[in-house]
Amino acid sequence: MELLILLAAFVVGLIFGRKRKMKYDFLMMSTIVLLFIMGYEIGNDKTLFDNLPSIGWISLLLALASIFGSVFLAYFLKFFKKER
To answer: Which range marks the domain in which residue 18 is found?
Structure first.
């Protein structure tokens, strides 16, 4: 059921985004709300914290690699855009 709600929200956002240009402030607030909800869901998951030692360092390395890769790519694209 939760997957259907997420899929519906994605489709509504896709349709809304195609119809009108969104302001930067709205996009920033949407991202903050999304991160808050994700953090709440992860923090509320008791089995995740119970199994945290068995998940291991690989999960931490994957998360850090994703963060650093995203920051690097954003910086690279910003640098590339300034060159034009």
So the answer is: 1-44
